[in-house]
Amino acid sequence: MTASQEAPDIPSQTRPNRKRRLVLFIIATLAVGTFFLVRTLVPAFRYAALRQAYAREVDAIQNRFEQLDVMKPVTREEHAWNDATGWLTTATGNVFFTPESIPLESVKQYHRDLMDRLEKSKPWTLTDTKWAWNRFASTGPAGERYVKRFGPGFDESVAMAPESAPVRP
Fold first, then answer.
1. Residue 113 to residue 86: CA distance in whole angstroms
2. What domain count does the chain have?
3. Is the terminal CB of the chain with fewer CB neighbours within 10 Å at N or C?
4. 92-105 pLDDT, tens per residue?
C-alpha cells in the first residue's frame, strides 16, 4: 500500500473516535452533574425531614400546655392561671425555634419528661408549672438564655396563680 491509498481511510477512522469521545464527554458531564445534584438535594431533603419532625414534637408539647389552660381552676385568679400556662406555650415556640437552637433529641427528652410529670402529678399544680418553666433552661443554651431573660415576667404571673387545677388533661 502506498501513502495515497491510506489517505481516504484516515477520516473514516477519526469519525468513530470523535463519536466515542462525544459520547464519553456526555456521559462524564451527566455523571458529574448528577453527583452535584444529589450532593445538593440529599442534605436539603434530610433537613426538611428534620424540620418536619421538629415541628411535630414542638406542636405536641404546645398542645399539652394548651390542655393545661383548659384545666384552669374556677377562682378569681383564673386569669393568672391562664397567664402562667400561656408563658409555657409561648416559651415552647421561642425556645424550640429551630433544630440549630435546640437539637431534636433535647426537644424529645423535654417532651418525655413532661409526659412523665403529667402522669405523676395529679392534678397539675403550680409547682409543676414552675418545673416545666425551669426545665426549659436545661434543654440547652437557648433555653437557658430564654428562662433567664423572661423569668421575672413568668415569676410575676405565677405569683398570682392558684396552686392547682381541679382536673387533669
1. 19
2. 1
3. N
4. 999 998 888 889 99
